[in-house]
């Protein structure tokens, strides 16, 4: 009995609990129903999502006061993604938005549909509905909740949805309320290849068709699509009408009308029309002023490693010669292709498609298409494995400081973003790569209101956020301006994560990613410099008989080349490229002209050859001998002297091949001037006109060693026949003046070169000459006193005279050699007519000097023949204690009337001329 009562009580409790739960649920439902009515002014509103990131597409329709339907929803998954509400679509409003629904969106969506209910919000509380990733403060896409003027849209209108019951309707008894249409949305879509899609919408009122070409390819690829000429069977390309679309190397979109005459790249013929795959306008005489480009660019975007170009063309084209008219009800053959874009050069200043190559169905193909059909065979978003490839890449090598500035955002990689973002080395928010163990210096010049830091937080703004983060460098004090930059050095270690971020300490989302890698070129090579325009980095390690080079581009290209010379013409060039099979190649050439026929392969032996392409950036390495050690062939002249500056230029282009070079292999970009690389010092400077400081140095050294010092020597040699010590005064004044001018010239050169460097032959001879020249005043100060009149000179005095004369003449000879080697170094550095003119002027000066010395020597010999000197005559020292007017190394005669001679001493005879 007691057990039965317990069971009854338990059953009664369960019934009461369930009843209360059901009652509460009905109460909540009634409360929610009160809010979710059709009375909201937004009921019936429909709009396309504006794609921002993650290939988000879809259409929303507001059902009632607290719910909406999403259809055709595509999105690449994120990390912590929610439906998001904000008061506006600007940076401040979006970052201060709020979660609208607790439902997460952390997966890939492929043409999905769903109904979403708002959590405690109504439509009048926000103006923007979006998809937001909390972890990175990223806007994937959004809708502005405002009715747009459909007539202002530049796109084909989408068909209106059918009317339905009020419970799931986008219809509120009146006209549909339509938001802005988005250019990424089309009525139809098919897959041409796994990574290439064709989207289109008919606009019958304009007798036009909007076409969207979408491909997960690099930004250096073109996308081509068009109609084959009706009646073509096996050969579909000749006379086909295609549109070639893509992005230039500057990021500018294009979509141009092309006509195909044969299966080849476009070739411009001097004596006839172009041939191959060429733009329509090239086939028309410029005098005709005919506008045959009937393809109109509508919209483009490059996002998540996917290119999308939307263009419009007429169905019935007025250009019947080059275009194919489209019959919307017929099955027509269409052709397509993907390939690399050839950059403009001096021969063909156009962006032109290269031969696509590859496999059918992957790189090119054809199919039949009836554009009036309603079809959607594109399941989900296109995904690219190279999403970060679009960002400019900066590899920090630890040699050159990274200049950090702040400028207006143009293509910030993670919208939304503030008005100004970080620029590093003049590149907007680049992907920065550093190596563990390599110190990197940052020169922060972004302004005193922008503090720089490296942090684990992808959003930044540490001063205003309470998020847990690790600060690796910088902070509130890391700010500066160009006139007074703030420099600091950071070195990633083995505990640094593989990815960190450079951001502002105060503002959110001004920076981007830092990749931290193990080792690299900076560790493998002893020296590195940026070449002209900071587009190519040169690394090298010098050994006794060879040198190892590495060359890395700083932007994407098909090949990269360096030339050893003042320009690519008349230079020895090394080219690195990756062929169609993915193999790396490095070859050497001698270039003696601007045409492809002037590029000659050499037989130079290169070792340790490597070449690779990473994210479209070419890096190649090789080792070569300093002296090829051969006698025949142009490559035998390719000698590198480590003590002399090496002139280096660079060039890049879209395509290179081992054999059969043509004009299409010529470069599209090149350095504007050579860079002088000091191999032994590990430094570089721009090759430019003769610097005024070095010109002053050269003039002063010529004045010292070409005029003053030789003049002093000539005075001591040929002016001793003049009465008194005039020759001695001239000798001393000229020597001291020459030494003073010489030392001033030395200081000018040291100031320009920022120190003394004795690697070159010129500097070695110069230092030796300066040493001997400076020794002469010391030698003169230490000279022994002369003996009394009539006494034999001491051995010390005689030795001193020999040393003084030998040192002075040696200094003069070495100084002249230094002048010659200086002119040679000047020629190696600057070349040109000016240096050759200076060389000829120096030669003329030496000829004049030699003639002058010869004449004076002749006059001296004539004077010697007029004088007979007794064999027992004595050394004559002069009659004054300080008189050194008599050459102790030669016996001489005293002038007439010489006093102080005793009869017992030898007789001096003065020969007089007979009249």
Q: How are the elements arranged and paired?
A:
Blueprint: H1 2-35, E1 45-48, E2 50-51, E3 57-64, E4 67-75, E5 81-86, H2 91-95, E6 98-104, E7 109-117, E8 128-133, E9 138-144, E10 177-178, E11 188-193, E12 196-203, E13 208-215, E14 221-227, E15 241-247, E16 253-260, E17 277-279, E18 296-303, E19 306-314, E20 332-342, E21 352-353, E22 364-369, E23 393-395, E24 402-408, E25 420-424, E26 427-428, E27 431-435, E28 440-444, E29 452-455, E30 471-474, E31 486-490, E32 499-504, E33 513-517, H3 521-524, E34 527-530, E35 536-542, E36 546-553, E37 559-564, E38 571-578, E39 584-591, E40 599-601, E41 607-614, E42 617-625, E43 646-653, E44 669-670, E45 675-678, E46 683-686, H4 692-718, H5 726-753, H6 761-781, H7 795-830, H8 832-865
Parallel strand pairs: 1-10, 23-27, 24-28, 27-33
Antiparallel strand pairs: 1-3, 2-9, 3-4, 4-7, 5-6, 5-8, 8-9, 11-12, 12-13, 13-19, 14-15, 14-20, 15-16, 16-17, 18-19, 20-21, 20-22, 24-25, 25-26, 28-31, 29-30, 29-32, 32-33, 34-35, 35-36, 36-42, 37-38, 37-43, 38-39, 39-40, 41-42, 43-44, 43-45, 45-46
Helix pairs in contact: 4-5, 4-7, 5-6, 6-7, 7-8
